[in-house]
Amino acid sequence: MNKPRVLVMAEAANPELVSVPLVGWSFANALRSVADVHIVTQVRNRDAFLRAGLKEGTDFTSVDTEKVAAPLWRFSKLFGPGAWTAKQALSAIPDAYFERIVWQRFGASITAGEWDIVHRVTPLTPTKPSYVARQCAKVGVPFVLGPLNGGVPWPKGFDKERRREGEWLSYVRSAYKLLPMRGATLTAASAIMVGSKFTMGEIPQVHSAKTIYLPENGIDVARFHLQAAPAADDGPLRACFVGRMVPYKGADMLIEAAAPLLKVGKLTLTLIGDGPMLPELKQSVASLGLDGTVEFSGWLEHAQVQQVMASCDLLAFPSIREFGGGVVLEAMALGLPPLVVDYAGPGELVQPEWGYAIPIGPRADIIRDLRDALEQLIIEPQELLQKGMAARARVEETFTWSQKAMQIAQVYDWVRAPVGPAPTLID
């Protein structure tokens, strides 16, 4: 089958940012290897696209929604650094405006059959309906949605962290399922890719035949190319944490769990990242008498992050509400085994062959299990190298962006000739 002509909608897509914009860019750019792609993105990403070598008008189109998006973005800053659910709800307005403009610009060419497929890559959240999906269904052009991810419930016992994150709207988040436009979007889509098994469970059973599991995060081998050598010497176990310093990431639990081992020199701990909890974490280290045993690296560029991670034996990442877990894949790509909480994204990425997962539970149980896992690795570090090699192999086989592009190419082939069941992309 010839390469399909695909109009890729990626409102958030930027190679110079992190999180969702980087995922959006990485997906859209990778798809250029398996399809004739034209990317539609928001105007704020235009300069970054040009610096990345793409040609406006040929490779991409920028859509200006700033008259709606900019004031709402300024207003959302009043919510503080957290409040993710509320900010997502507010961003639904400029996202809907973006889709209307996309249809104004490309509706005629879509209707005329100039595009084989329309694929909305971002937003990733499953809560936002798509106007373009419904229009594509009317003119018979396949519409691919996703990968969608988000909405992982807060685990029991962490209401304090939930409130500190400003997640007051998360208590009623499920109300979005009652919106009629949501059902119309899912019905109109030819394929619905989901980035987590939890999100798959949120898709109504009537759409299960076209729902396809594919974690949204991937690895750019140019960004993460170093090779870690876990347990290569007889020194203390070297653990690192990478992430924003916010309550749900669990850096405070890691420090408390590691404290006895840090005090006796059996463990070193490096924390990479910045955020509102950083002063509190530094104070905790001081109050526990751990000055000089924990290194706070602050925010680092990707190149520096991989250098620090590659010098360690283990990624310790006890986040209790992680949708995707990109840092887990980054560690695995370097050959660094991850130690995570078995919940949501990280729990789906980590298997015993290449990492360690402790059960989700109350805070005290997570701290205890983290400490037990670290103590066991200090006693028996021999398997770290083997698990690290298996982790690297897993990423190379499944989670590079080139691999993801080939996986999505299977979805494209299926929606163009939907014979038999939807493809299974990852086990």
Automatic annotation (TrEMBL):
Coiled coil: none
Domain of life: Bacteria
UniProt enzyme class: transferase
Pfam families: Glycos_transf_1
A GO MF label: glycosyltransferase activity
SUPFAM superfamilies (alphabetical): UDP-Glycosyltransferase/glycogen phosphorylase (SSF53756)
Name of the protein in its database record: Alpha-D-kanosaminyltransferase
Lineage: Bacteria, Pseudomonadati, Pseudomonadota, Alphaproteobacteria, Rhodobacterales
